[in-house]
Description:
Elements: H1 2-16, E1 25-26, H2 28-38, H3 40-55, E2 66-76, H4 83-86, E3 89-102, E4 107-121, E5 132-145, H5 153-220, H6 226-260, E6 271-272, H7 293-315, E7 319-332, H8 335-342, E8 348-357, H9 362-430, H10 436-467
Parallel strand pairs: 1-6
Antiparallel strand pairs: 2-3, 3-4, 4-5, 5-7, 7-8
Helix pairs in contact: 1-5, 2-5, 3-5, 5-6, 5-7, 5-10, 7-9, 9-10
Amino acid sequence: MMKLRAILTAATLAALQASPASAATLTVDQYLGQVANAHEGYQGAVASGHADSEASREATLAFSPQLFASLQHVDDRRQTIVPAFEGTRTVTDTSQFGFKKLFDFGLQTQLSYNISSNTIYNVSPLLVPQNSLVTSGLMLQLTQSLWQNGFGKMDRLTQSAVEAQDRANSFNNSYQAKTILADAESRYWVLAIAREVTKVQRASLERMNSIRDFNARRVRSHLADEADLLTSVAQAKAKEFDVKTAIDNERTSARAFNSTRGVDSDRVDETLALPPAMAMNSLSAPNRASMRDDVKAAEQSEIAASANSDAAAQKQLPTLNLVGAVSTNGLDTSLGTSVSNTLTTQYPYYSLAVNFSAPLDRQTVTSVRRAYAEQVKGAELAYHRRLFDQENDWKDLMNKFQEAKERLSIAVAAESAQKVKLENEVKRQKQGVTTTYQVFQYEIDYLNSELNRIQTQATIFGLMAQMKTYL
């Protein structure tokens, strides 16, 4: 009866979660490839990072040549005071087209061609001999900033701020993508470790059942006290609980594993590649980059804040612009003749002007400058803190990594010693020279040594995943 119960118990536990027949071994790199192809968050971070990198070029558009054009038709039928001179209706058609460009030293240039056709209806021929005229002109206009945005300083600062902020966004997205992959790698090892724990707990249950069956035979043969059998049964039942807990943890880990690669299931058919414990002593930390991507983002944010602050300071300065213009002009009743006149220098136009303005609310100007200075200080402090945390965290990871490898060597040796001790005690029990209680104590010691070794492996894998955010 006891033996039948043991068989049924083992069958029930196997039905709860037997490791599925594996079609293939899935390496961690292959799994990360699946995550990269299926994880929307990762793909979004990569796409956003690439977009931000490309968007940083947008700031240069401010200094690129631009084509412009405008067309206007006006039909004015408002009442006039002197209809004989002003007419009763005026129709005006204007058009302007050309090129303009802003240079990085603050010079704004505009080359345009302007045509205006003006017709006045119902005027007196004596007062207005020509009621319809076409004016045209080719104009070059130059504006040079001398104080605010002096020689293009504010424009260059604005460009630097936009480019730095786009780079910061790109680095932040890159760090997010690496963090997603690091988390996925951790989930791979968590499932591999969970399976190893389940395997170890099953093996422990088998040993417990073997001891129970041995004691059952001795009790039936009146060679042992029934207390030994009752202890064995209780220990086996307790171990069934541990196995069930391990199976549940493995199922939870499998769902997390699948979720990261876009699969809605708690079943993982592949075999995961868990390296032998002794082979892990040869693992080395990955070669890190000089600066983690989130730290690079903080650095670029500081650059952007500083450029924005300096650009804001430029905005508060008085405006002093030198404006010059030169044009050729044509005026005739015929469009062709008017345009032809603009191709000569017969009717030139020259203009030279100076524009000046200055803000009078100096208190607000001072307050704005102080606010931008505080933003720069905040960004600078955030960057230096990120830089400090990066180096401190890396040193901590390296120390923990080395310590974990040393602990793993000890754990492997302890596990081997505990196994020999347990096997020897089982032999002594069969020879009748030790107690069942002692065997169970040694079984617990051996199981704990196995779990310590597994936990140390898990620690090393977790540290390795975190280190990869520094690549």
